[in-house]
C-alpha cells in the first residue's frame, strides 16, 4: 500500500480493504447494456448476497446484529458505488433510508419487530417522502394521516395527484413496507410531518387494498433500481405504526412531543437522517474516481497526432490541455476525498456520542453534509463528462464503463436534496450564525457594523484548527511578497472570499429589508446568486482546510497547491474586482498552475492507482485491450518507416 | 408566426415549415426506453420512410433527383434532430457522409451509378474514416490500399488492430458499401489518404470475403444507429472504385492529380466534406431547443417552496438562480442559432458558387464550421444537463425526454472532430493569417512589432460588416461613460479580447521558438491553453456579430444584451486583468445581467415557443400532465387553508 493510498483510505481503511476482498468476483460488477428488466432482476438478486459484516449492517445497533459504526456504513456504501451504482442506491434505499428511518424515528418495540428482517433483506422497504408536486419543500408535503380516536387508527390519504409519492426506490417491484411521511392530524389540528411504517404489498407482491403503485419506468440511469409512485386511498393504519420517537399520539388522540415547536421538531427528525446525503456525496466521488482511473490510464497509451522530430512517444496525457482537464479534476477529487473523510468523522462522532445531541455540532454537520453533497455531485457530473470526452469515441461505448457512470450518477445532483436548494441551506446556516449574534433580520437594519469577532465565530475552522491558524498567521503582510504556493496565503485567500461575500450579502439583505419590508420573496430573490456564491466560497474553504490537514507528503502538497491555485484562478474575477489580486499576480497564478501540471504529469498514473480500485471493478474494455494494441501499432510504425 | 419565430426560422423557413408538416404523425418521434434491438429496427425502418423532397435529397445534384440546395439539406437535418437524434445521425451517415463523399470525391460515372440508389436508401452505406488507434489525426490513417498494375486492382488491407475502422455508422447492420479512407500506394510510393467505394456485404447482409465486421454494441445513446468496426484482409478492389476527383491512378499505376502537394490535396478533399460538421453543430442546437422548451414550460408550473405573504403564485421560473440557468442558456441558444444561420448561408454560397472555389472563403468556412461545431455541441451538453437538473427527479425519467436528448447528443462533442482539436484548428487559422503576412514562424522571431493593419486583415468581420463598423466607431473613447447595453461597446470588448489574446500567443510562440528551436511539441504545448482561449474568443465574436446582424426587434435586442453581457461577465477575470474593466464596472455588469433577467422573465414562455417545435415532437409526459395537476393542487390548497 502506497503512502498515497493510505492517506486516501483514511480512518476506515479496514472497511475499504474488507470490501475489496469480500466483493471480489465479477458477478457484482456493473453490466453494460442491460434492459431494465435484466438490471432490476440482477440487482434484486445481488442485494440479498451482499456481505452483512462490516457491510450493510455497519450502521445498525449492536443488539440487532449491527456494527454500531455509522462512519463505517458510509464508507461501505462508497465502496459499493465503485462496483455498481444501482447496487449502491438499492442498498442505500433498503438499509440507509428505510432501515435508517426505522432506527432514527422508531421506538424499541419497532426496532425489535423489524430491524432483524430489514438487515437481512427479508423485509424490503421504501422511504416514501418525495411527492410529485413537491420535491424540496418537504415540510409542505400534501399526504395526510388523520387520527380517529373512535377506531384508534390513522387514516392515510393522498388527496390529489400532486401528493402521490414519486421517484420512490424499491416501490415499483420489491418493497413490502414503506416509511411514509405525511401531515399528522389529530383532534382537528395538524402537527406537521411525521412518519409511519405502512405495509404496501402482500406476501405475493400484490399491492394491498387502497394502495396504488405505479412504475416510474425507464430512467436515464440506475436501471437496477425500481423507482415508483405510491398513492393511498384512505388506508387504515394502526396507531402503533407511527414512528413516534419525536411525537406520540395517545389512544384518545392527544399529541405529545419532547419538542414543542412543529418546525423545530420536523427539522430535528430530518436531521437524524443526514447520513443519506453523506452517502450520496461520497458515492458520487467513488464514481468520479473510477472515471478518472479509466481516462488517465487510457490517456497514457492513446496517441493523437504524430509529433515530428520528437524522440519520445507523445501520448494524450502529455498535452497541457488534457492535463488541465484530468489533473485538475484529480486534484479536486483528492481534495473532496479528504473533505468527505472529515465529514464522515464528524458524522460518526455526533452519532456515537453519549448523552444529548450537541445542537451546534448537529447543525454544523447538516450544513457540511449539504454543501459537500452539492459540490461532490456536481464535480462528479462535470468530471465524468470530461473523462468521457477525453476518451473520444471509446468513451461513448458502454463496454468502456463511462456511459454507465455518467448516466447513473446524473440524478445525484437533485436527489437527497436539489443542489441549489442545499447550497441555500448552507448559506442560511452562515446567515443564522450572524443572526444569532445580531438578532433577527429586522435587527440587522439597526446594527451599523460587522464585528470581526462575530465573523470569527461564524467562520469556524473545520479541520486541523491550530495548524491552519499557524499557517495563516505566518503569512507576511503584503500579498505580492508571498510565494504562490504559500499555504497560509491560500487559506487567507479562501477565507477572505467567504467573509467578504458574506458581509456583502448581509449588507444587501439589510438594504432590501429596509426598502421592501413587505416583500420577503423579492428581498431574498434579488440576492439569490450572491447567496449561492457565499455557499460555494464556504464549501471551498471547508475543502481546502481538509486537504491541508491531510497533505502529509510531497505529492499531496503539490496536489493541494494545484487545488488551491485552480480555485483561486477560477475565481480570479472576484479577487481582481476586490483588490485581492493584482493583474500581474493573477497571471502568475495561471503560470504556476501550468508549472504544477508539468511537475505532476509523471505522477498521473500513480495518483489514480492510489484509489486502489480493483482491476475487475473498473470493467472497461479499453483498459484490457489498449496496452497490447498500442505495442502492436508502435512496432508496425517502426517497421514501415 | 411571431416575429421571433420568423427571425429564428431564417432563410430556410420554408424547409422548416415543410418538415413540421411532412413529419407530423407520432411514428417519427423518439421512443424512450427502447432496447438496442428495438431502436435499430425502428430507425432502419423509418429511414426509408423519410420525405425525399425537400428533405434527404436536398443536398444532391439536380440531375439525380436532388435539390441542389446545400443550405436546405443542413436545415432539413436540423429538423430531423428535433424528432429523433438517432434518425438524424442515421440520415446524416447515409446521405451526408456516405452520399456526400460520393458526390464530392467521385466522378460522373460513379455519380450516375450510385447516387439514385443512395438517395432512395436502396443502397445503404458507411463512411469509413476513423480508426481505433487514430481519431483526430486522419492524415495518418493506417489502412493501406496498394495498386498492382499486373492485375489492375487495388489491395485494401488493415495491417493491425489499431488500423481497423471503428465507430462507423451503418456498419454493424445495414451498410452494403462503404467509402473507405486509406493510404494510396502505387509504384512503391504513398500519395496520402484517398477514398474508395467498397462493397462490404452481399445482398443477404453477410460480410463479403476478406471483410470482418464487428459491432460497437451498446452505447451511451443513439441506440438506433448501428455503429461498428470493419477490417479488411487483403481485399481486392477494382481500379475504378477509387473516388478519383482529386487523384487518379492510370492502369499502369501512374498517379496524377491537379493538386501537387499531398497535404494540400488531402485537406482539399476533407474540405469538401465540411457539411458534416455544420450539421452536427446545428443538430446539437436543435436538441438544446427541445430541452429548453421542456424545462422552461415545466418551470412555469412547478412550485418549490411556499412563499409566505405573497399574493401571487411563485413558480420556479421566478427564482433568480433558475433564470440564471435557463434564460442565460436561452440567450446563448438564440445567439448560436443566428451564428449557425450565417454559417449555413456561407456554406451554401461556397458550395453553389460557379467556377473555381475561392480558397480564402473555403478556409474561412472550414474554420467557422469547426468553431461553431465545438461551441454548439458543448453548449448542448451543458444546457441539456442544466435543463435536466432544473426539472428535478422528473428530468431523470425517460418519459420526459431529457435523458434521451442528453445521452444522444453527448457524442457530438467528440465526433466529426474532437472539440478541443477543432478549436486548435480555429486558432491555427488565425495564426496562419498572421504567418501569411509575416512569413514563417521563424520569421516571427525577427518581426518586432504587430501592425494594426495586419490585425485588421486577420480579424475580418463575419456578418453585417458595415453596421458593425458603424456601431464600433460610435462608441465614445472612455469605457466608463458608455452604457452597459451599448452594442458598439460589446463588440469592441469582444474584439479586444480576441486581438489581445492572439497578440499574446504570437509573442509567446516567438519567445518559445527562440528558446527551444528544436522542440516543436513543447513550443506549442506550453501555450496550448492560451491557444484555445484565442479560439474561444474568436468564436464568441463571430457569434456576437451574427446576433447583432439579426437583432431586429426589442426582445431580440434584450436577448443580445444578455448574451453579450454574460460572456463579458464570464470573462471578467481577463477583462480586469487587462484593464478593460474597472472593478466598479465589472460589478455593474453583474447587476445589469440580473436586471435583464427580470425584464425578460415574463417573456420566457414566448421565447421558447418561438422555436416552434410541434407539440407532439416534444414528447414529454410532464408537459402533458403538469398543467392539469397544478390546477388541482392549487384548488386543494385553497380549500385546506
From TrEMBL, chains A, B:
It comes from the Bacteria. Residues 271-431 form the Acyl-CoA oxidase C-alpha1 domain. Its cofactor is FAD. The keyword Cell membrane does not apply. GO terms for biological process: fatty acid beta-oxidation using acyl-CoA oxidase; lipid homeostasis. Its EC number is 1.3.3.6. This is acyl-CoA oxidase. Pfam families: ACOX (PF01756), ACOX_C_alpha1 (PF22924), Acyl-CoA_dh_M (PF02770), Acyl-CoA_dh_N (PF02771). Residues 126-235 form the Acyl-CoA oxidase/dehydrogenase middle domain. Keywords: FAD, Fatty acid metabolism, Flavoprotein, Lipid metabolism, Oxidoreductase, Peroxisome. Belongs to the acyl-CoA oxidase family. InterPro entries: ACOX_C_alpha1 (IPR055060), Acyl-CoA_Oxase/DH_mid-dom (IPR006091), Acyl-CoA_Oxase/DH_mid-dom_sf (IPR046373), Acyl-CoA_oxidase (IPR012258), Acyl-CoA_oxidase_C (IPR002655), AcylCo_DH-like_C (IPR036250), AcylCoA_DH/ox_N (IPR013786), AcylCoA_DH/ox_N_sf (IPR037069). The keyword Oxidoreductase applies. It is found in: Peroxisome. GO terms for molecular function: acyl-CoA oxidase activity; FAD binding; fatty acid binding. Residues 58-120 form the Acyl-CoA dehydrogenase/oxidase N-terminal domain. Residues 492-622 form the Acyl-CoA oxidase C-terminal domain.
